[in-house]
Amino acid sequence: MPLKLEIVTPERRIFSDEVDTTVLPGIEGELGVLPMHAPLVTVLKPGELSYSTGGKTTYLAVGEGFVEVTAGAVSVMTDMAVGEADIDEKSVEDALQRAKDSLAGISNDEEVATVQAAIQKSLAQLHVKRRRRTTL
To answer: What φ, ψ does residue 88 adopt, rounded to 5°?
Structure first.
């Protein structure tokens, strides 16, 4: 029995299809979901989301958001979802360096949290982009 996976950002629907499994970066750690999983709602943290279909695994860098799991579906609502082919490594490295540089001059807790989230998103993208180099 397949699992319906939907990944949505504010801009568009990124993915909507049936998958065999999915693994998500939840607030409490990695969350593996198979068909007939117990229903739950959890916070999505920046990191790597993967899903498998027919023995092929696809990886996406995701940002913050929410996940709803039912027995037959997983709905991911996130502020970022990017596949390896859409990641410009140099641009992400530059953004990461700018974020790290700006962190030193910030004292407001809210601004620190915003910059730290940007750093986590950049690191997630670099991890997905560089995955292929380490597994070939």
So the answer is: -95, 100
H helices, E strands: number in the chain: 2, 10
Q: Where are the domains of the chain?
A: 3-84, 88-135
* Dihedral-angle region of residue 7 (phi above 0 means left; psi in -120 to 50 means alpha; beta otherwise): beta
Output the CA–CA distances (angstroms, integers) from residue 128 to 42, 65, 103, in the order listed: 22, 18, 24
Tens-place pLDDT, residues 84-130: 888 888 988 998 888 888 888 787 888 888 888 888 888 888 888 88
Residue at token pair 């360096």: 97
Could you identify the residue written with the tokens 């910030």? 106
CATH 2.60.15.10 fits 3-84, yes or no: yes
pTM: 0.83
Pairing of strands 3-8, 73-78: parallel
Q: Which residue has the tokens 């799991």?
A: 69
